[in-house]
Design goal:
The protein is mainly alpha-helical. The chain has two helices and no strands.
Length: 50
C-alpha cells in the first residue's frame, strides 16, 4: 500500500539492523514489531532511535 503512494520501502530483520540503517539514512515513517527477537525488542529499538 505504501509503495502505491510513492514511498520507498526498506525492511530490516532486527532492531540492530534498524538502528544501523537509521544512522546512515533518514526515514519519514518507522513501523516496529514490538515483540522482536532474539536481541532487542521493538520498544528498546524505539528508545535507541529517539
Amino acid at each position: 500500500m505504501l509503495k502505491t503512494l510513492g514511498y520507498r520501502i526498506h525492511a530490516v530483520s532486527s532492531g540492530e539492523e534498524a538502528i544501523d540503517y537509521l544512522r546512515e539514512n533518514i526515514a519519514d515513517l518507522i513501523l516496529l514489531d514490538m515483540i522482536m527477537n532474539p536481541w532487542i525488542n521493538g520498544r528498546e529499538t524505539y528508545e535507541r532511535i529517539i
